[in-house]
Amino acid sequence: MNFVFFNEALIVCSVFSFGNDAAWTNGVSVDEIFKKTCYLSELLKREEVIKNRFTPTNRAYFDQVVEFMESQRLVTTKDGNLTLKSTGEGLLLMMGSIVWPMIDTYYVVLLYTMTLVKQKNILDANFPKDV
Question: Considering the entire predicted model, what is its pTM?
């Protein structure tokens, strides 16, 4: 299921990164969502093998996916802002759950590696086990 909804899940997670009020009520700038979605796509590029990826040079594909999500009544766009629709809440949360564990894992590993800067007595051989 991951590869089927992977790109949509990236968009959903990007929207949620602006907070619940923005995601469900106020809306978020589509341009800002595109920037964050491209960042997540680059971060997670090795996680799924998919044909089309979001990149800063491929905005047309991003707009196509947003239009698809709008046709499925998952999101609405108005005046350059995107808002999640409560009628698709279950599907949106399911899509987000595809990518959130990967993002969380990257975040936890990053935080752990940051602690290594302060603790120089960590053995390289123990690093993968400790993570």
Answer: 0.78
